[in-house]
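Next comes this protein:
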Amino acid sequence: MIAITEHVVRDRSLLDRKIQLNYQRNKQQDHTECLSKAAKSFQYETCHDRYWQSEKFSLLYGTALWDQSTEGQRRVLNHLYWVAYYSQIISAEIATIFFNQTSAAGLYAHEGFRAICDMLDLESSQERAHIDAFQTVARQVESTLFDRPLFSYPMRGPFTETMIFTDANQLQRRWKQLQLQAFGLLSADNTFLACQYFTVRGLRTLNGKLVQHQLSQFCSDNVESAPVPSQISHYHFLDESFHFNSSTLISQEVISELPTPTAFEKTVANLGIRGCQKDHITFSVVINGIFWQDSALYETVYRLLRSPLFEMEDSAAKHMMRLCFTQPSEGLYQSYQTHQESMRAYRAYIDPLDYVWRSNHQMATMATASVEGYLRSQQKSLPRFFRRQSLSPYQSAQLST
């Protein structure tokens, strides 16, 4: 018994050191000041003629639109990828700030909670700086290019649907909101669920890590001479690397010290993981690395094609949309590849967790995605979008219902 107790104490001491080390390193290498300083200096006219990340991370890269675009148009598509990508990250980080705090409350009952909570407080402060920087760039770019935003939006609450382009209807959005509110209450008073939140956060951060590592590498050799958005991508990735470590420590090591979860706790935890799968079940030809539903992007892409950037007539814009959304392309296959890489990484991430359902271990929901299924779906939904456009607002609303 004494030997077992000493082993537990040693393991606990090692975990405490890991948590403290991650927190101290993040604190010492905090890039908030650099990121905020870069954002304050952003002027679109000073970097509109440069790429902000590699070409493959451009809006509608590898599609007919990309192939037919001029060099200047391609650069703007590259900039709009940045705006769209980090607009999605804003939505995720707003939710993260809230659930960091509710989960920290759930960890009060855990010995050594202070180091964990201090770590989460620092991360929330960094997330606020990230959001401000992303908004600064996105709003300036879109106000320069368009009469109204394509991807950016006003600040939103933590219970809003996280995916900003989804086909969810009002009832589904409200149900999601209630689920998030309920989980916030549960995780604030349940140490297991508080830890399990970081399993979902880890999965979502893992997907971002796969893409953001590539975005950050664009200027890693000479950060200060890079365009400001590239600098922000770089600093953001460095911060998020520590956040991912936090998620892993809490969801895989802290959680292992807790009593065996009850049937109720297991169910809530697995529903959260399944919800993440549902959010990431599809992939987008518009933006590689974000699992938006492209049918929810039709209106935005149509506006882009009709804007002064491309100046397409209605018929030309619709023809281009058919080519981009309903035909195989290099961009589509690259987005599918990113989806598959994420799915494999998710499986590896949750492999050590024995409370996870088999369907979640296998990422069975995500595994149903395919290029063929994507094209079939677009071939059905795009004509419906065109029909709604040709109707009066009243007729369009009736058709939607």
In short: The domain at 2-400 is CATH 1.10.620.20 (Ribonucleotide Reductase, subunit A).
